[in-house]
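U., I forgot to send this yesterday:
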Amino acid sequence: MTELTLDAPNTRTRNLICAASDIFDGAAFDAAMLGAKNGAATDVRGDILDHLKDAQTQGRARIADAFRVDPFASRATIRAYSYLTDCLVRSALRLAQDVLHPNPTPTQGEKLAVIAVGGYGRGEMAPFSDVDLLFLTPYKITPWAESVIEATLYVLWDLKLKVGHASRTVRDCIRLGTEDFTIRTAMLEHRFLFGDETLAAELDTRLQADLFAGTERQFIEAKLAEREARHIRQGQRYVVEPNVKEGKGGLRDLQSLFWIGKYTHKVQDPAELVSLGLFTEEEFDAFVTAEDFLWAARCHLHLLTGRPTEQLSFDMQVAVAEAMGYKDKAGRRGVEIFMQAFFREATVVGDLTRIFLTKLEAVHLKDEPLLERLFKRKRKVKAGYRVIHNRLAINDDATFLADPLNLLHIFEEGLRTGMLIHPDAMRLIASNLHLIDDAFRNTPEAQRLFLDLMLKHGNPERALRRMNELGVLSAFIPEFDDIVAMMQFNMYHSYTVDEHTIQCIAQLAMIEKEELVEDLPVASSILKRGVSRRVLYVALLLHDIAKGKPEDHAILGAQMARKIGPRLGLKQDEVDTVEWLIRYHLLMSDMAQKRDIADPRTVRDFAKAVQTVKRLDLLCVLTVCDIRGVGPDVWNNWKAVLIRALYRQTKRALEDGMEALTRHNRGTEAKKDLRAALSDWPRKDLQTETARHYDPYWQGLHVTAHVAIANLLRGHAGNEIAIDLHPDEDRDATRACFAMPDHPGIFARLTGALALVGANVVDARSYTTKDGFVTDVFWIQDADGNPYDAARLPRLRKMIERTLAGEVVTREAIKDRDKVKKREKAFRVPTHITFDNDGSDIYTIIEVDTRDRAGLLYDLTRTLAASNVYIANAVIATYGEQVVDTFYVKDMFGLKYYTESKQKTLEKRLRTAITEGVERAKE
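Result:
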């Protein structure tokens, strides 16, 4: 421990990002202090504080400017901020001790040592890190020491530093450190700053002898438990808005490794972990690279926000990427390239943690009790392997590497035994990936082994994730490397592309094991009947292989699959099917979520594209796995209902012929169901109800909605708007039925009313009757994506009625709900508007693909209404910050919009409505 001086730079002040004298002018401060001591100033404290404020401002500006010029020089930057803080703390202490509260003849009890602890004690500080100080006294604190401490803290607080502080004796430190591992960890990295060196040295000796010695295992277990709790709190390293400091694979994980190394082996520098055999030179280089990158990201976060921000939110990802010099390249945004680098470093941190902790296990884990060892059944492993601490280890490295196929065999053995692979084995695999060459990939045994890892053992997720982390997956399928740790910069996907792929395969494995029969009855029944498992698993593995390229990833991915498939040992017919599945892997999802599946034309077109029930089965399962693999909350009952309905109708069409989809057949069945549901109605009333609706009404709604509307229309009085709100649990939404006299613009008024009450419309239907009424049905969700609780429905009804009654001016009131959140402003969502006259026999389909916001649907429907467009249906598909609103429309004469001039006029008006809404959202 040495005191940091202001004049002669020591080892900690070398290699700063700018000169120490530029960070803090010690001579100028000495001159200011000398003037104060000589009585030249009337307000000593004020003058010195002003001097320190100016020095702090200038020092921080010079560090920040130098860092912006060299945005990856994080190590020199964090040392520079630490050095500046040292200078300010020492200056505040000198002011308090030498000028404000001088004590020329201190007693034995009036000694004081100031110690930096925690990250500050380590000498690593981001721009707005806390300043943690320990004021150490030999005995109970004296009035003089209390005055000095108080004066020092007030100066630091006036400098706007966030100071964590404690005043303790050496005995206090030992006692509190015994009780609290957070305090113990902070004191592990203590550093003397100023005051009595003898007292500081005593603390150092006593900590080692009375607190640290003999408690290594206890400390390791506490740190690992703390790490586990932190990871649960923060989420996995694959989350799209990671915490740079606390998240999995973040700085805290690296710091925990060093803390444990320092506690158990007394190391003072992470480089010493190499000589102890805990890391190889290459692994230590990876440690340094990851640490430098994460510190750079954290420092830029602090500087850009002007506060201690640790979360890489979407908006800050863009800003940090720009600050670190990442540019758009080859169809990918700079922010996506930056986040891929971030996740790769986070993965490295995870690998290093495994290696480090396993090495420590060998030294610090106690043997199991004798009786447990005697009676515990040992798992048998194949020749060439052994078990170390319940992990699969390699007997002899040279023998293992003599047969490169062992690089796959070990994963098979891990799945067979259910054991994790020992980090020493992982280290050996990762350093010999060159053995997986073209000859290896084309070996039939290697192909069999690889497919068996997915098909044979029932737990492909574990094998694929470990293979991915070690680089084996990318070595065996080189094309996979481009999507490793690739972030999709949107709010829809919760995982990186490689993790999404593995999550999809995990979903398929669970369906196969019949773990999701209740949630996924159709997909489960398909797999139970039997499909080509090889085709399905390979298609899922490769379905996003072309993500990140300028071309359509489905088209390019299909082309890539034609080359990769044979390398995986697939037969030509299997390759053809995999290629088709990848080319059309979004088709079923798009048709179900963006089109009206009640329209026979939708099902007919989908059936023509699929052609066979075999393909339909495969595509249905792949689609379900793909959606469920996007994120934990993406799949819901609404999507399930749509996918099931499209599957069942298409299967029926493929098996029984397209005539099974005719409107007449479906309408007849729907009327029959309504008569059964309203069996207590008089025959005359039933005849009136079944006769008043056109064919699309009967095919577009479930019988429960038909019943609700029948009750609304029965005895409808004049100009009233009748409303029925009902939770539709099967669809995770609330069904809102409206019946009223028909007049232009009513659909837009309804969307405005629903927007005003904060309801998100997920689907909508509008039908006119032969006797002058309009019936509209909306499925709505609350702000959290859930149906409204029954208890909230009366209030919801009242608010809708008030809005429809004109008590609230929708366009004005909706402005307050139309804001785009700051974290969402970083997304680029271009607007695409298409007109389709082939997708429906009756309507023109207008598809609007743009950024989502609260008042969007209202703006669009109001614009269409003002253009005399009749809206029959609106289908809403939301993908995070992006939404696709699809409208089935006719013109005022009941015709489609065929002419290009009319389409262009409508498109221009819709784009204007979107642009005006975006500008309103920015206000």
